[in-house]
Amino acid sequence: MAAFDVKSARRHFPSFKSGFIFADNAGGSQVAQEVIERLTDYLINTNAQLGADYSISAESTRRVLVEAPTEAAKIFNAQTADEIVFGSSSTLNLENLARGLESGIKVGDEFIVTGEHEVEVANVGPWKKLAARSGAIVKHWKATPTNESNPYSVALQLADVLPLITSKTRIVAFTACSNILGTIVPVKDYTAAIRKRAAELGVPKLEISIDCVAYAPHRRIDVQDWDIDFCVLSFYKICGPHISAMYVKGAVLQSSVSSIVHHFLDVDKVAYKLQPGGPGYELVYATTGVLQYLQSLTPDHSLASAYDAMALHEQTLLRPLIAFLTEPAQWDRGVRVVGDDTVHLGRVPTVSFVVVGQRAMRSKDIVKEFDRRGKAGIRWGHFYAYTLIDSLDPKIDMDDAVVRISLIHYNTPEEVRTIVKTLREILA
User: Fold this and answer.
1) Cβ of 147: how many Cβ atoms within 10 Å?
2) Is the pTM for the entire model greater than 0.90?
3) Which of 181, 265, 316, 343 has the fewest CB atoms within 10 Å around its CB?
4) What is the C-alpha separation between 425 and 414, in angstroms, rounded?
5) CA–CA separation, 369 and 401 (whole Å)
């Protein structure tokens, strides 16, 4: 495999001309030139209502209803573009999905959810609200420590979810990658084990929903290989516009999902049945630039090769950051990584930490010092993973939570050295 050319990748991003270090990528990435060009081209050349016979409308319709879902299906590795629906956010997509499933949910059905991406959003909030409306029961799959020396080294472990499954389990919803912990969850293995346990218990209908918002920037999604029913991603986390796409398995569309759109539309077999009102057409079409950008990153223009190359490059970003945060001197200082504090391909460069002990330092004060210096952007907070952070032991102040440094493939080792140098000065 050819070495990843980060300089070449960075040439696709006009925003890098400022020299600022963007290290809050788990909150939103920079936008590739291919995306910008498609967005402006749509507004200039095909900004017409869909569905008419005149040429500009016909081209607009093709771009929004054919090209965009076709390209998005490749990112999910969906079987067909009919399994793809767009929405303004992953939260909205899953909320619409929950509404579409509602008529088939019975009192006493059980939903298993994790403690991430919640506070009424993404892959937890919609299921909680659906349970409240339908009389279903919510069970929490809690992340637990993996390293005895660090109580904050938590991760989702298979042994913790299997006992939660009963004959009444209806939905299992979890993240493919944590937006706090940076840990890759082995979705295929976990899904197979969950389905096996459900079959042993005689579960009549089980559907699995995977949140790939924090996963898609770092690893390739494969909904068919994973054998899942629902999946969401946010294009603005993978160098695209601020819009989300959702995959709904074709068979499930017909067996479980009711239409929430106008009654006179013939959409029973397509995911469009979960799209009441259209998202910005220019944003939908602009998403097609994401695939073009990703495929430009390696000589063979393969999405698989691009993700493999990005993953290896990201290890060069993760290694020096974790090395600094786990130095004996930083451990003595009270620095604790929240999540896995080792470097391997099962971990992405989304790194959270706290500073505790006799010389404790507030997360917001560390970030304020970065802001004062004006060279790099990082964040503090709970990042909607409220239950995950609130369940950590020893307890963490939820009004302060964690410092998060989140990097992706276009960041450079030089940028990481600058971040580490700044941290070293702040924590001295």
Assistant:
1) 15
2) yes
3) 265
4) 17
5) 16
